[in-house]
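User: Quick sanity check before I run a bigger batch. Here is a single chain. Can you write out its predicted 3D structure?
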Amino acid sequence: MINALNKIEPNWTVSQQIQAFCTTRQGGLSKAPFNYLNLGLNAGDDAADVLQNRSILRSALPAEPLWLKQIHGVTVSTPASRNALGNGPYEADASVTNIPNEVLAILTADCMPVLFASRSGDVIGAAHAGWRGLSGGILENTINEMIALSPGLTMSDISAWMGPAIGSSAFEVGEDVLQAFAQQDQEILSRAFIPIAGTSGKYLADLYLLARDRLNTLGIEQIDGGEFCTVNDPGRFFSYRRDKVTGRFASLIWISEST
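Assistant: Done. Predicted structure follows.
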């Protein structure tokens, strides 16, 4: 049992108003196979342990996170939609805000969390980008909602950080996943999907490369992160692909109050 919150801070250059970090599996109270800091209530863990873990996390935040009901879709939760719906969790796979101290949160255990921040620090976003959401346009939808909250915001004003996800050496996929990205440039496809020798229709896929290509296509050049692999780092990260029954860690971002 480890009680000290262990976190990873994005290696990006953003406004001092932007605060963000990703939790690891260290620092919580859950028992195996959810040990230790499982933050997912729907993973099969004891709910009381998860709520205690969320309480540990809450001590490092200015407010309770805006938890989402993630469904591998492309819906983005906005301040307006949250006001209309009332209390969460909100069924969406991304969220945006321009409200200080409103904490956006994404839960993952192999899918890619992507955090966004404007250069001025006035608007942020967080997206859950597994292959379904990524191919369906969750990153594009998140960015469009950020621009809606900040008129005049341009793509060159947006920074992105790709958090811990399954790496290209571990993400074995079938033909259906390749076809979901078939509209992307063929040169990118040939680098992002490496055929597995001796196994017809099976590939090793690179989520980070696919996301970077989509963001570059939109005009976003400030892209950091992407050096992780949840499967091959069991000491720090939960991985559904590796363990099947496992916890979830969180990637969080907020705009701190001006001093």
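The chain has one domain: 7-150+158-165+226-255.

User: Great, the batch can go ahead then.
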